[in-house]
Amino acid sequence: MSPALLLALQDGFALPISGVQALTCQFTTVEDVNNAADMPYLWDVKDQQVCEDGWGCQDTLLLIKNGPQVKLVLNKGCTPEADHKARVTQHRTGPSLSIVSYTHVCRNEDLCNNVSITPPVWDSLPPTGA
């Protein structure tokens, strides 16, 4: 039986109800520390994950800049969370520590969680002192 076809029983009859097609999303977790001078950071994701029916694809990126170093935490995969456009949030800005995050959830097509480089997140970090 197709995973997109569910059966509902009503008065003893099986009625077909169309389901939502499962998405395939990029899948990875990266945690790294880099020199700020080596930014922006670029990654290549080869792993994929098939989501549960109705789930979306997500990108989550966190950059923590402390003087000359940047901690990067990246997570890509499936999520039950609601869709939302890409958004960048400044959690803390300078003078010695800056924290910025990027989140995006989509269901419009397979592999839609395709951010592969730190800008615009990196571009939104203010300069910090050493």
TrEMBL record:
Its main location: membrane. This is CD177 molecule. GO terms for biological process: cell-cell adhesion via plasma-membrane adhesion molecules; cell-cell junction maintenance; leukocyte cell-cell adhesion; positive regulation of neutrophil degranulation; regulation of integrin-mediated signaling pathway. The keyword Transmembrane helix does not apply. GO terms for cellular component: plasma membrane raft. InterPro entries: Fert-Immune_med_protein (IPR051899). Keywords: Cell membrane, Glycoprotein, Membrane, Signal. It is found in: Cell membrane.
